[in-house]
């Protein structure tokens, strides 16, 4: 990857002859951007381009360049790539469009490019890309004339578009350090670049723009490793259904279910943002602050109103307002009228105005908050009047001196209203200061640093191994694979083989068989009709509960049979499922194989409210006990599971183990598409699967 | 009110002698801001202030000024106010702090000010205020030296702080037209000012900052009238519990429950925003666009990636992506390679780059979208490269010409990335164009205009009148008022008097009474213990359901009695409630008297999930059928009420009427504090209240 970002020499195949306005000449824009290496335009129709000698072919170029850019019509790209390979070039960026982003022919061309790349070992970025930006080396391979940034932060971008690389002022903090547009990603992809930036000393924060996922599991594994050292921020678009369709036609990549992306990012410790403004806030605060060790904020404002706004925003972003350090109120009020309130938020206006000691009071408050062990970060909401009449409200020096006094780099988030970019730059000269455009953005920024702190300290899931009887499963697996599905008793026996508790039951075809089977079961019982024609059994009068004895049972058998024959004469009764009746709260647990990230485990509220409240938590498999616990505690019904108002909670241990066993099942039987246990009934005595369905 | 904003003369009591940096001299700042009226500083220790003659007292001023500003220590304020009253001054702004914002003494002083104001008819703004800003007349009574805005939009602010008035660049669009800080609002409040700005030809949008509500019902009525003509935008802070506490100590105003504020604002047609950035977005889009007649967007982008972002954001903000106007794809693709996709969003980059006709293509696309009857607004996401190499991507002229071609003012929301303030100003010279900082903000802006459209067309609730027997209620009302509550059968009979269906039941004290009562009821029955000691009956083994006959009933009676005697010997059984057993979905309906807005009606999911999912909708009383319907359809459980998977829905008519009757009850019995019907069981045959509780 190094050569893509630091090439000593570049050849450009398809360099335009014309230069100047409207020509989008990559040679010209690279030169203007200050590229310091050797540059070889290849264009058989030109002698010189931008004062550089032009070559008729790749072969004619006098050295084997570190990097080749290809910008020719799509049908000429493969030939150009072949020329690069023949010339011994190892790194190629294909700028041209019209591949998997376009039509069937384009997809075929792209597959051929990928094959050439694999066969030759030549690494290819693109096609359909603006290429690479490296502000540490004044390299910009895109054909847009960009402004060279004054300061270069150690933030690197991997995107599936050129938009974000180009529009750094809208997405980044000041600028990107390095950026790459992977385009259609026929070869170089997120995993390669994460690996590179993960080890790159010039990169302290990695930012991703993803429309689709590529090599999902490797992506997760790589990202998981890196986020234990550096933050990764991701803007995953195509969240909406409509967006997902567009992603398909746009880069030819597949967009998965958004909830799965959330679970995957969480697993990998990736911080997700929703748009360009959030991205800029996240970068700024992570770069300026790093991690935030606790949620407790000290707040200094110049108006009570802003203090209230800060409290609202703190609650929104999971932060808290710290207790005022003891003794500080007295110090601040010293010599002031009695009626002045001092609390946190600290309103410094009346304190500072009476006696005209605004700057001093500000510094006193700030340094006390920064020093306090009960305060994890400070938020300051102050005006920059920029008037000759109000020099007394300037607090640059107070901020600098308070920071020195405190002797630490605790985050100081500021919203300097009425200020401008210069105000912010000046404050940000002080270590550990970041400026935001609103109270909410400041809180949002701090919340990312809080996330980062927790991500750095997270534990890696360790899935338990459970013994199971492979032989008893093999017939069920065979049947499942053949029929693409296992239902009812089959599915229950399948999960039971992995130690997941199920309600005891049998399948019987006749009343005689039912009578015989019932002796092995305990009342009360449930009788259900079975058969392919009965998807929603209860709608059809095909279920009877609360069967207390053999006469109840016979009555149930007769009424179910009659019901079905009367109401749905065309439906075929394949049999009757007789089950011990379980009681408890209705949960749902399940597995779904995601095409990118593999099996995903889910649990949540079952029964009639499943679809209505969608109270479901999801985790990427594998999970350990800790993740199982997190899945349950993050549910809204968690208080009901734990037991409220003195009511007994459910059997927690059995529920956790059931989730762990389901995760283990998913890793052992790797070709399942979907598995649903619904309902799983759970009470204080344990949990029991009542119905299940498995799709291969 | 007019005199507060357009005073021909102002006297300032407590004008400082000193001027210049750090003095916060209101005379100086008013003069610098260009106030053109007559100005009279009152200060017995000064001859001249800022070149103006200073007067020793109010009485010495040679005219009766239109407006007086009082800025003296809090203990001198009342005397100053009395002087103003004596001098015949009718409008006073009290800038001084230390009143209900401070302590008990301050509260007493403020009450005295209020009494003086009421008795004399002199209108008072404040205390604890920065006063008034009127940019149409260069009037700023605050003591901060502000920048005079170049353009003055017709947007007026009413705030409970000076922050927003001063920090217009952070909260407004360019500037405020007029602004007022009502401070502690001892006299002039939101209602007065809404009335004034509602009729003010210089105000087309009203913006509110509220920490607490004052005169809630009058506020709602006034706002409801105005929002049928002009949009009202509100930032209501103190959302969090912590924030609510701070509001209490900050302006002495009470902050109600945030959900009630939501319901109240909805009722009044007020558009609620969450922070300064949202406020600025709302103002900008409402000012530039007015209303948005439909949700269908045409999108023009220069990158596919931004198109996907637009789709995501549209879904987030309840807007949709329009179908591409027929024929437009062919027109745009004319002469371009076959593989170029044209859809909505329209990616104009490949279309514009091939053949170098970017501006033309942009104009073609934009005017077609603006003209189309299937497109309600256009979102354009384009770069402003600001490079001499890319003049071809400038689309100022294209925007202007397309607008002219289309001949309408359909909203055109733009995100011009890489641009700056000048870019935005230039685009906004075109009618009906507004620029935003992100795709999300553009969508957010359009969504406010969509809200405004719907608010303008909303209907005013008309509550039905239901006949009821006042005499049969009077005993219950008497008991309720005396005991501060009605429970069980009493509460049920109370609501039954208003025609709300209840399950039939009786209260009995002994087994003999139970036996006698049962003949009037139909099995199955429920037996419950009653008494003050039993708040959560079912936790105590005090409820038996499914009683099918007299022997079941006797068994239930014995087991409940034994249960209670055994487990809670100290609890007193006051009686037994015998009810017909109802079935159906468990809902909850109720009333709560809000201290600001009066009775609020609520309905939602009852039973064990009530607290977990909080699926409750609220409306301010009165409601009519339409609002009742909205309350039910906005619930997440609405699909279950309507019936899914062929299951029968509940009796819709009976449920709607029950809500209407409850609203009517609330207006008739005006001294209820709370009323809960929980559960209300509802199925296809109707709904029935099973338990109720009323608090006076």
List the helices and strands and how they pair.
2 copies of one chain form a homodimer.
Chain A: H1 2-5, E1 9-13, H2 26-32, E2 38-42, E3 48-49, E4 52-53, E5 67-70, H3 77-86, E6 91-94, H4 104-120, E7 123-125, E8 131-134, E9 139-140, E10 155-159, H5 163-166, H6 168-171, E11 178-181, H7 190-198, E12 205-210, H8 216-226, E13 232-236, H9 241-251, H10 258-268, E14 271-273, H11 276-289, E15 296-301, H12 304-316, E16 320-321, H13 328-333, E17 346-347, H14 348-353, H15 358-371, E18 377-383, H16 396-406, E19 412-417, H17 421-427, E20 433-435, H18 439-456, H19 470-483, E21 485-487, H20 488-496, E22 505-508, H21 511-517, E23 525-530, E24 543-547, H22 550-567, E25 575-580, E26 585-594, E27 598-605, H23 610-613, E28 616-620, H24 625-633, H25 638-642, H26 652-668, E29 674-683, E30 686-689, E31 692-695
Parallel strand pairs in A: 1-2, 1-5, 5-6, 6-7, 10-11, 10-12, 12-13, 13-14, 15-16, 15-17, 15-18, 18-19, 19-20
Antiparallel strand pairs in A: 3-4, 8-9, 8-11, 21-31, 22-25, 23-24, 23-25, 26-27, 26-29, 27-28, 29-30, 29-31
Jot down its keywords.
homodimer; alpha/beta; 7-stranded antiparallel beta sheet; 7-stranded mixed beta sheet; 696 residues; flat
């Amino acid at each position: 990857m190094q050569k893509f970002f630091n090439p000593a020499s570049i050849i450009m195949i398809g360099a335009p002859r014309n230069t100047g306005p409207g020509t989008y000449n990559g040679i010209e824009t690279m030169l203007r951007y200050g590229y310091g290496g050797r540059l070889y335009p290849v264009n058989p129709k030109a002698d010189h381009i931008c004062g550089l000698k032009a070559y008729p072919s790749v072969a004619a170029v006098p050295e084997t360049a570190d990097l080749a850019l290809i910008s020719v019509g799509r049908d000429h790209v493969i030939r150009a790539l072949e020329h690069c390979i023949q010339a011994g070039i190892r790194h190629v960026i294909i700028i041209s469009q019209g591949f998997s982003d376009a039509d069937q022919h384009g997809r075929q061309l792209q597959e051929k490019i990928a094959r050439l790349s694999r066969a030759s070992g030549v690494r290819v970025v693109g096609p359909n890309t603006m290429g690479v930006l490296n502000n540490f080396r004044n390299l910009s391979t895109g054909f847009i004339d960009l402004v060279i940034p004054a300061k270069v932060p150690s933030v690197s971008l991997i995107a599936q578009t050129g938009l974000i690389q180009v529009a750094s002022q809208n997405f980044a903090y000041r600028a990107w350090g390095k950026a790459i547009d992977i385009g259609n990603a026929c070869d170089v992809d997120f995993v390669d670049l994460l690996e590179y930036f993960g080890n790159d000393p010039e990169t302290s924060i990695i930012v991703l723009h993803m429309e689709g996922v590529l090599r999902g599991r490797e992506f997760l594994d790589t990202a998981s490793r890196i986020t234990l050292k550096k933050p990764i921020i991701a803007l995953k678009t195509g969240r909406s259904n409509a967006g997902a369709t567009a992603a398909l036609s746009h880069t030819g990549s597949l967009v998965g279910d958004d909830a799965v992306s959330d679970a995957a990012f969480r697993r990998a410790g990736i911080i997700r943002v929703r748009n360009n403004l959030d991205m800029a806030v996240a970068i700024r605060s992570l770069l300026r602050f790093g991690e935030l060790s606790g949620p407790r904020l000290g707040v200094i404002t110049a108006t009570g109103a802003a203090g209230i706004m800060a409290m609202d925003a703190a609650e929104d972003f999971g932060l808290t307002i710290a207790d005022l350090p003891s003794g500080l109120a007295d110090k601040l009020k010293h010599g002031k009228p009695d009626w002045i309130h001092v609390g946190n938020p600290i309103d410094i206006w009346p304190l500072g105005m009476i006696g005209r000691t605004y700057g001093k009071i500000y510094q006193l408050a700030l340094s006390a908050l920064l020093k306090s062990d009960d305060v994890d970060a400070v938020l300051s909401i102050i005006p920059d009047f920029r008037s000759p009449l109000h020099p007394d409200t300037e607090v640059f020096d107070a901020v600098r001196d308070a920071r020195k006094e405190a002797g630490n780099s605790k985050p100081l988030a500021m919203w300097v209203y009425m200020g401008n970019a210069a105000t912010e730059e000046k404050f940000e000269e002080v270590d550990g200061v970041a400026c935001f455009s609103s109270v909410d953005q400041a809180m949002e920024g701090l919340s990312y640093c809080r996330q980062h702190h927790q991500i750095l300290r997270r534990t890696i899931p360790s899935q338990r191994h459970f013994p199971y009887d492979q032989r008893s499963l093999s017939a069920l697996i065979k049947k499942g694979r053949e029929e693409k599905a296992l239902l009812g008793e089959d599915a229950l026996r399948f999960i039971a083989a992995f130690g997941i508790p199920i309600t005891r039951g049998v399948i019987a075809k006749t009343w005689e068989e039912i009578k015989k089977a019932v002796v092995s079961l305990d009342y009360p019982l449930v009788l259900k009709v079975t058969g392919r024609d009965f998807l929603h059994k209860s709608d059809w009068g095909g279920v009877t509960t609360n069967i207390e004895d053999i006469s109840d049972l016979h009555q149930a058998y007769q009424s179910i049979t009659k019901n079905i024959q009367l109401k749905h004469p065309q439906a075929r009764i394949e049999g009757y499922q007789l089950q011990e009746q379980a009681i408890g709260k209705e949960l749902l647990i399940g597995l779904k194989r995601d095409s990118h990230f593999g099996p995903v485990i889910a649990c949540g509220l079952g029964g009639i409210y499943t679809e209505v409240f969608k109270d479901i938590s999801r985790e990427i498999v594998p999970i350990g006990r800790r993740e199982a616990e997190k899945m349950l505690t993050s549910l809204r019904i968690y208080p009901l599971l734990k037991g409220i108002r003195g009511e007994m909670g459910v059997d927690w241990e059995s529920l956790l183990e059931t989730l762990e066993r389901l995760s283990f099942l998913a890793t052992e039987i790797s070709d399942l598409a979907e598995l649903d246990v619904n309902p799983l009934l759970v009470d204080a005595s344990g949990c029991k699967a009542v119905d299940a369905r498995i799709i291969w």
